[in-house]
Predict the 3D structure of the following.
Amino acid sequence: MLPMPQFRVFRPLKTSWPRQVRGLAAISRQATAAKPTGDISSVFPSLSGTSSAPLPLRFADLKARLIHGHEDGVRESWVRLLSELRQETETIRAIGSGLIPEISFADFDDVGKRATFKDQLHKRGVAIIRGVVAQDEALEWKEMVNSYVRNNPFTKGFPPTKPTVYELYWTPSQILARGHTNVLKAQAFLMSHWHSTKESALISTANPTTYADRLRIRQPGDVGFALGPHIDAGSCERWEENGYGRGHIFKDIFNGAWEKYDPWESSCRLPVVSDLYNGAGACSMFRMFQGWLSMSETGPGEGTLMVNPLLGKATAYVLLRPFFTPKRSLAESSGSAFLDSDNWTMEDEPTPVLQGAVPSNCQELNDMLHPHLRLDNTMVHIPLVRPGDYVAWHCDTIHAVDKTHAGTTDSSVMYIPACPLTEANARYLVQQREAFSQGIPAPDFPSGPSEHLYRGRLTPDQISLAAQRAMGLCPFEPPPQQGDGEYHVLKKANAILGFT
């Protein structure tokens, strides 16, 4: 059993960060409008129940520009894509959760197992790493969370009356888990499966950075946290030229060659702005993988994660869907004829509609808006997980949670994404460590109750050196070789963090 931390009240933490860094953090906070108050439902209209106004007409002009000169190619690519989706749907229906690759943390050095894992990960975009943390340690962390909540009974969450997802970012359990040596190693391992076409790209996947997210403790019978299929890190931004368009990530898709799209190329993601509307919970940090560390034994149907293992093809469909409309409605079609490619035509005149996209929210999906994805058949459960397992999915992956927790024990996780070191991520760390010092929600998240007076908070001296480095509390160590992008981004990050 791990020793429980001594519960005591902490004032805002005293730090020894350089004066210019404290000034930079203040400037950053002034430059970024404060997030509105809220909870996890704030970026999901399907959870909050809020209605959304139609998108402005500028989005019709945007759609016209995106495919200008490539209209014929896009039409032909749409037909090819629908054919591929039909075949993939049958594969997923037949195999289900068996498509999700797994590897044991102890097998990272097994060349054969790594090669098999890599191929499956690249195709499916989701994985489980078994045994990243010892089961006893993960269970102890859950008990520490429960103690933290009991000792701070005014903690908020969603749903408000019986929280499942807590507005907590700085519990001892979260800080210790994010900075655990094995968790950081698992994140670096996963991020090594990305690549860059530019050797000079300012990115390091060998140096994970911390992203302070929430945690979930979902009790049996819960139906409140019925989060449907969605993609995080923006919605409208995926089409907008000053959003994902800054990196031209999806140009092959909009040019009619979706097969050339590479979801694993990292350099094009560096200039992206994924939060143009300052959403209350919209992500601005580059997360290569979203992920969570399990604190419970949870199987399919027991309040767990569901994923769509189509990755690149699903991305292409989501992005191209707004350009096409059915000739005959579902009510006018017989059987599967509604989905046939000859029933779909490109819009005569572009409309501003981007199905499921709402400014300042995540991208939501459903069978009515995205019928060819056959979400009823292609959303599959994560296989049974145990305490200490780490589940990760590519940042473009469609995912959801069980509508009902039909199990008999809690389904508990700490959300811990895998984030590389980049200049933008280093700038985020400057703000985030100030949030840690003050005990307030991390910069991407809704403003709300502060943890600065909570009993049981940790101070930097109670955190390992590796954890401090990932949080931007101490400098990164540049590699001995000079000249490549990793060397320069480490030097630049240290300057941004005020350590040079």
Notes: The longest helix spans residues 71-95. The chain is about 30% helix and 10% strand. Confidence is low (pLDDT under 50) at residues 1-17, 19-32.
